[in-house]
């Protein structure tokens, strides 16, 4: 395989572009937020086809969702009123927490098939997160797919760390009505969040597999799903009109959120955690919270594969 890498200054953004020439696969990552801003594949004519919403476009849209694939953490979705308490200390932050708004350090590596970025405890304030926990995020091209890996290191000598994280990719479609999502069979648990916070109501759904069983016009309210008993967690997003298809393997992921604001995209979000409850709990008692022992590590990953649908 033949990989090439270049760094590009685009306005106030530094963007890393990694290309697998053999597979015809390319990603672009902004060091602001360590966000994937493009996933592209060559089609049969040799032209690049982008798979993310507003793929490779860093200009602010006139309206609607302004991101491509937001990195979420050290909490995800929302804290109620932007605040919570963690070990009796106040923490505060906006939607999806602080990772999306930081300049990440690029990690040099001898692996020419990957891009890695790091956040250290000195990169965030005690109000954003009070413990010393570092994160390395890696996007690796392997065969025809992209493996996304989160690796946390808890530098606290005695304290268990609590946190949540995930990725919020929006996959491009011709229109809000043109995309499809195939979901695997199994038992899911839907967590209801009518006011952006969990109400405490859940619904178990036994699904035979196939097209998404949810009403499309309710996607702006989000479908937050827990994998209760879903042995094969492979999803397939497709937009036949534009010939885009993305296969996601979420093995090892505990939750997935489906969302769109009604624009020409669908977000399929691997999540390690849940939003706050309406009756807020302390951060360390949040539903879905992940833990890292003192001086320990937590590693989690998922895979996505962009495909061009044959004409």
Summarize the SSE layout with pairings.
Elements: E1 3-10, E2 13-20, E3 25-30, E4 35-42, E5 48-50, E6 69-74, E7 83-86, E8 89-92, E9 105-107, E10 114-119, E11 133-142, E12 145-154, E13 161-172, E14 180-183, E15 186-191, E16 202-207, E17 210-211, E18 223-229, E19 234-239, E20 244-249, E21 255-259, E22 265-272, E23 290-292, E24 297-308
Outline the structure in words.
The chain has 311 residues and is an all-beta fold. The protein has one domain (3-56, 67-308): Distorted Sandwich (Beta-galactosidase, Chain A, domain 5). The protein contains no helices and 24 strands. Strands 9-10-11-12-24-20-19-14-17 form a nine-stranded antiparallel sheet, with no helix packed on it. Strands 6, 13, 15, 16, 18, 21, 22 and 23 form an eight-stranded antiparallel sheet that branches. A five-stranded antiparallel sheet has the order 1-2-3-4-5, with no helix packed on it. The protein is globular, with a radius of gyration of 19 Å. The two termini are 26 Å apart.
